[in-house]
């Protein structure tokens, strides 16, 4: 039952602007931490949205490809202040991370070989292995509720690790299994509300409360769906054509536009799930960066606020820098353009999904035939993330000289980090700082 707290006064767009900007700078801890911050602020403290409506929005975002915490910010911003509210919320959620990563990546490219920076990375990289394994454990404990789903995870691990099957094909295969399974054995693909533990306490009347009517701009209409979708497609296509006209379709910036658009549509399960696809494309196919640089980028991404998928900014920066997209005398400009290109095309689909399809996708929630494919994809994602951890471990722990030897210090740091994460629930940022300092001491 509601307590006697009256709902807060209407929130102006200016007030919302400053909140979303602040959130962009403090949103550490990955999706779980970012969602927890928004819940504490928007549900418990500010009461902009009720518990039920917050979970309703979160479940919707979990059905979509893309970073769910970013989409949740877009959704709430849109619900409060229409289209511009959603655009401002999502942009400010990402912008601080982009700017910080551009600065850190420049430092990495210019000073990365100095002893101090190398020492810090020596400690951070084993921690990244532990963080990825912990992510697989958390997702697996939530997703692998029966033998069938566990089997899908194992099959995905074998497919990407030993058979070199591309990540998109694994996603499609899992979706097909879920589509059939949702009809034949729906009980195997019903996991319930994976986010019910966010909370179910009443914090008083909210501005957008349980019984607040859906605002007119959030009601579904085919015209709005078509208009916003077309606007987003035209914007993305126009940006890509601009890049192609400036430097040609076979140049890095144009290639990044198309590649990161595809990556954005495959991010079921969060950033860790799409990293193998980004690795396959950026390292093995386009050769924008090396495997070691990819690991370093993930290490830097773990230390910054914002979505972890922002590692794409690191990839874009280095890709444009190393390929001298604007010539050898404009490396910094090229790197900045690459980072912005990767970020724009990675996040544009998320904005379109929320602003165009929110009401439509909400109406399908709870339909097992539509959610079963996503349940199967989530199971496959666990296997893919474990494969990613194995890949990182091989590159972090194996020494170049003598051939076949292993770095026992890195392995010890990784083991200690895994225990700290899984047994003692140490936060990601304190763990990264501790491992970085340890690496500086022992390197």
TrEMBL record:
GO terms for cellular component: plasma membrane. Keywords: Cell membrane, Membrane, Transmembrane, Transmembrane helix. One of its GO terms (molecular function) is chromate transmembrane transporter activity. The keyword Metal-binding does not apply. The chain crosses the membrane at residues 16-37, 87-111, 117-136, 148-181, 222-246, 258-279, 308-326, 332-358, 370-393, 413-442. It is a multi-pass membrane protein. The keyword Transmembrane helix applies. Its main location: membrane. Coiled coil: none annotated. Pfam families: Chromate_transp. It is found in: Cell membrane. NCBIfam families: 2A51 (TIGR00937). Belongs to the chromate ion transporter (CHR) (TC 2.A.51) family. This is Chromate transporter. It comes from Noviherbaspirillum denitrificans.
């Amino acid at each position: 039952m509601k307590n006697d707290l009256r709902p807060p006064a209407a929130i102006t767009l200016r007030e919302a602007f400053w909140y979303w900007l602040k959130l962009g700078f403090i949103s550490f801890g990955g999706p779980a931490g970012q969602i927890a911050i928004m819940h504490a602020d928007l549900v418990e403290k500010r009461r902009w949205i009720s518990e039920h409506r917050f979970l309703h929005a979160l479940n919707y975002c979990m059905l979509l490809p893309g970073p769910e915490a970013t989409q949740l910010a877009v959704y709430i911003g849109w619900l409060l202040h229409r289209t511009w509210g959603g655009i401002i919320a999502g942009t400010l959620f990402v912008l601080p991370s982009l700017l910080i990563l551009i600065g850190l990546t420049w430092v990495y490219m210019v000073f990365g070989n100095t002893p101090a920076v190398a020492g810090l990375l020596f400690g951070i990289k084993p921690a990244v292995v532990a963080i990825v394994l912990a992510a697989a454990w958390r997702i697996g404990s939530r997703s692998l509720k029966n033998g069938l789903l566990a089997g899908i995870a194992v099959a995905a691990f074998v497919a990407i690790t030993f058979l070199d099957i591309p990540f998109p094909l694994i996603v499609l295969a899992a979706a097909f299994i879920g589509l059939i399974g949702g009809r034949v054995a729906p009980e195997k693909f019903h996991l319930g509300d994976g986010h019910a533990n966010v909370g179910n306490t009443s914090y008083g009347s909210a501005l957008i409360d349980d019984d607040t009517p859906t605002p007119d701009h959030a009601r579904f209409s085919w015209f709005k769906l078509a208009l916003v979708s077309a606007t987003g497609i035209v914007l993305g296509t126009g940006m890509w054509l601009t890049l192609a006209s400036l430097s040609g379709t076979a140049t890095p910036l144009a290639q990044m536009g198309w590649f990161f658009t595809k990556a954005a549509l495959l991010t079921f399960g969060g950033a860790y799930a799409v990293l193998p696809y980004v690795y396959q494309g950026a390292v093995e196919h386009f050769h924008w960066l090396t495997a070691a640089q990819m690991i370093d980028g993930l290490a830097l991404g773990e230390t910054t606020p914002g979505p972890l998928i922002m590692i794409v900014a690191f990839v874009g920066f280095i890709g444009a820098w190393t390929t001298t997209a604007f010539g050898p005398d404009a490396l910094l400009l090229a790197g900045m353009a690459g980072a912005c290109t990767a970020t724009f095309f990675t996040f544009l689909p998320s904005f379109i999904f929320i602003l165009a399809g929110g009401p439509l996708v909400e109406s399908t929630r709870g339909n097992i035939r539509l959610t079963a494919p996503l349940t199967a994809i989530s199971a496959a994602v666990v296997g893919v993330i474990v494969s990613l951890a194995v890949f990182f471990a091989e590159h972090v722990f194996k020494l170049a000289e003598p051939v076949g030897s292993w770095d026992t210090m890195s392995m010890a740091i990784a083991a200690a980090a895994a225990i700290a994460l899984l047994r003692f629930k140490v936060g990601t940022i304190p763990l990264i700082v501790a491992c970085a300092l340890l690496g500086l001491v022992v390197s």
